[in-house]
Design a protein that fits this description.
The protein is α+β, with helices and mostly antiparallel strands and about 230 residues long. The chain is built from seven helices and eight strands, in the order βββββββααααβααα. Helix 2 packs across helix 4. The longest helix is centred in the C-terminal third of the chain and has 43 residues. It starts with a strand and ends with a helix. About 15% of the residues are buried.
């Protein structure tokens, strides 16, 4: 006569002469050799890594998808009586689900909405595995690998998009600057002598910023008006 120890995170499935008898809670259970058999089932959340899967998107772009499955046993009886190796079965079904879901969506959607893709895969896997006494709590996509030429094409597209935005921002800035200059010129023209003062201020600023000596010869405005009348 021996005792079977069932840990706190486990459930025991007892068989008597090869036939299922009952489930055992954590603790010590009597187990008579050759007459009784107790199988301990881990009830904790477990993970299964899904190796990179070759898949073809709906728009015929080959990708490699790596994921991880989070699950736990909810019915110890079913994982013993319904399926022989539920870990392997979950892994294989998840790989198939990944390829199916990716094949039903375009590349842009796969890249932009990982959470929705993962939720769709999780739904497919969970629908199948619940018959095995297992609950799939989450599936996370770890990596989406694209072909090298596709990566280069996307990089060029992103660069072109950045240049486009920069050109638009620059043109908007030039338009606003031109509008401000036009408004300033109209206001200065409306005030006698203001435009000349602004010209002198601009010259003084530019000259002071240069290291080389610069000489400016300023003529009175009356002389300029005299020459203008002579031309007429």
């Amino acid at each position: 006569m021996v005792f079977a120890i069932i840990n706190q995170y486990q459930k025991g499935v007892r068989f008597v002469l090869g036939k299922y008898e009952k489930l055992l809670d954590p603790g010590i259970a009597l187990n008579i050799p050759f007459f009784q058999d107790v199988r301990n089932i881990d009830m904790r959340v477990r993970t299964i890594p899904i190796p990179p899967q070759e898949a073809m998107t709906k728009d015929n772009v080959p990708v490699k998808i790596a994921a991880v499955v989070y699950y736990k046993v909810v019915d110890p009886y079913k994982v013993v009586m319904v399926i022989s190796d539920y870990n392997y079965a979950i892994s294989q079904y998840a790989q198939t689900a990944v390829r199916d879901v990716i094949g039903n969506n375009d590349l842009d959607f796969v890249l932009a909405d990982r959470e929705k893709i993962a939720a769709e895969i999780e739904k497919m896997v969970d629908e199948e595995t619940k018959e095995w006494g297992v609950d799939v709590s989450a599936i996370k996509l770890q990596d989406i690998e694209l072909p090298a030429d596709m990566k280069r094409a996307m990089a060029r597209q992103a660069e072109a998009e950045r240049e486009k935005r920069a050109t638009i921002i620059l043109s908007d800035g030039e338009l606003k600057s031109a509008t401000n200059f036009a408004d300033a010129a109209r206001k200065l023209s409306a005030i006698k002598g203001a435009l000349h003062l602004r010209t002198l201020q601009t010259l003084a600023t530019n000259v002071s910023a240069e290291d080389s000596p610069t000489h400016l010869w300023m003529l009175p405005t009356q002389i300029m008006k005299f020459f203008e009348k002579k031309k007429e």
